[in-house]
Amino acid sequence: MSGTEWFNEWFDTPYYHELYFKRDEAEASAFIDRLLVYLNPPPACTMLDVACGRGRHSLHLASKGFEVTGIDISPSSIDHAKAQSGPNAQFFVHDMRQPFWINYFDFAFNFFTSFGYFRTRREHEAALRTIAQSLKKEGVFVIDYLNVHYAEDHFKHSFDLEQERLNFHITKWMDESHFYKKIEVEQDSFTEPMVYTERVSKFSLGDFTEMLAYQGLQVQDVFGDYQLGPYHVRNTPRMIIVAKKVKN
């Protein structure tokens, strides 16, 4: 697994967190709370947060009394998460394509399109295999992914965002299989912009259903937004899939 892939560099910068995680914390917490009402997990059950970043979702889950483990490929993000962690949360630097704990967790989560970044279908399947193997029999996996068809229909090619003393110039494009986003980070102290390019796979519900089934995970429900409204192939912004491990 190459250490020079775009996400290894971009996710380990402070600019990534400035761009994406200054978003409404209350909205993110409310989504997780709705999800917990729907899932009704037993007290003190074990949860895995895959691609946990700096741990904000893991820590919210841990605050509810669940035993939460967060993994992420970014060492600086995990250092940040560890600095905030309490008794119910632990964090590890880990590549989701590599095996993790086996038959250990009651629930696994992958929030806010933290998937679809790898070059090949085989690597994505390896990540789903890691997650499936980490779950106990009857364990539940929730993946929150963009709705490809909605994203295509609401595509915005370029825009600027200001965060603190930073300016982000965003340029987006797509092809048949991926969305791309070039992020130019500008600051008064920079002699030239810092430039990063994201790539996210256009996985449909059918793609996920097939990949999950191959790993013994059966789709139970699909939601289309953070209010857990019904999924529609073109009209809802998210694709929140709930799948159960039906075989080891």
Task: Describe the SSE topology.
Blueprint: H1 6-10, H2 14-20, H3 25-39, E1 46-50, H4 56-63, E2 67-72, H5 75-84, E3 89-93, E4 105-110, H6 121-134, E5 135-146, H7 148-153, E6 158-163, E7 166-174, E8 178-186, E9 194-201, H8 205-214, E10 217-223, E11 238-245
Parallel strand pairs: 1-2, 1-4, 2-3, 4-5
Antiparallel strand pairs: 5-11, 6-7, 7-8, 8-9, 10-11
Annotation keywords:
four-stranded antiparallel β-sheet, 2 domains, Rossmann fold, seven-stranded mixed β-sheet, 8 helices, alpha/beta, globular, 248 residues
Radius of gyration: 18 Å
How would you characterize the largest beta sheet? 7 strands, mixed
**Total strand segments:** 11
Strand order of the largest sheet: 3-2-1-4-5-11-10
**How far is it from the N-terminal to the C-terminal residue, by CA?**
26 Å
- The average pLDDT is 93
Strand percent estimate: 25-35%
Mind telling me the CATH class of the largest domain?
Answer: Alpha Beta
- Spell the H/E element sequence: HHHEHEHEEHEHEEEEHEE
Find the CATH superfamily of the largest domain.
Vaccinia Virus protein VP39
User: How many structural domains in the coordinates?
Assistant: 2
Q: What share of residues is helical?
A: 25-40%
Assign the structural class, choosing from mainly alpha, mainly beta, alpha/beta, alpha+beta, or little secondary structure. Answer: alpha/beta
* CATH topology type of the largest domain: Rossmann fold
- Helical segment tally? 8
